[in-house]
């Protein structure tokens, strides 16, 4: 999968977007004045189709309290099976790549399937429904209540 820097341009499907940031495979990471960074489909994805897949790195609970005070917390994901039982370790997973650019939606078009590959935890972003080329890819954040001003992001 190659990464290409794109020239600043207007996006016809997202007129509020100021520029394309990068194109990575079939995904576009874009910047919008209203939302900040966002992930946009560079092609159509069928329902249940794989959008992206990565290795997630476990964060021990003792380290998570420090990460919450940094910008790195934007890249912490919670597997709901861990999140509902606070006695289970690890509590969070650090994940980078395309899915880190997904914005929250209460009506998302994608979701994360957690899995295991050898000794690693994997996160696979799947289309919840058909996603059109040029459409923003969104997901529901499991830990949305922990964000400052979380009520504004619950729509």
From TrEMBL:
PROSITE patterns, per database record: SET
Domain SET intervals: 15-142
InterPro entries per record: SET_dom, SET_dom_sf
Protein name (database record): SET domain-containing protein
Organism: Palleronia caenipelagi
Cleaved signal peptide residues: none
């Amino acid at each position: 999968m190659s990464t290409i820097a794109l020239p600043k341009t207007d996006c016809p499907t997202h007129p509020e977007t100021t520029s394309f940031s990068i194109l990575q495979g079939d995904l576009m990471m874009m910047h919008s004045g209203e939302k900040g960074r966002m992930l946009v489909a560079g092609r159509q994805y069928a329902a249940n189709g794989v959008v992206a897949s990565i290795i997630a790195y476990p964060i021990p609970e003792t380290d998570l309290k420090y990460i919450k005070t940094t910008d790195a917390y934007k890249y912490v994901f919670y597997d709901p099976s861990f999140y509902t039982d606070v006695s289970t370790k690890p509590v969070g997973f650090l994940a980078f790549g395309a899915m880190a650019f997904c914005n929250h939606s209460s009506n998302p078009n994608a979701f994360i399937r957690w899995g295991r590959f050898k000794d690693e935890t994997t996160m696979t972003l799947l289309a919840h429904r058909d996603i059109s080329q040029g459409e923003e890819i969104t997901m529901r954040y499991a830990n949305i209540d922990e964000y400052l001003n979380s009520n504004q992001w619950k729509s």
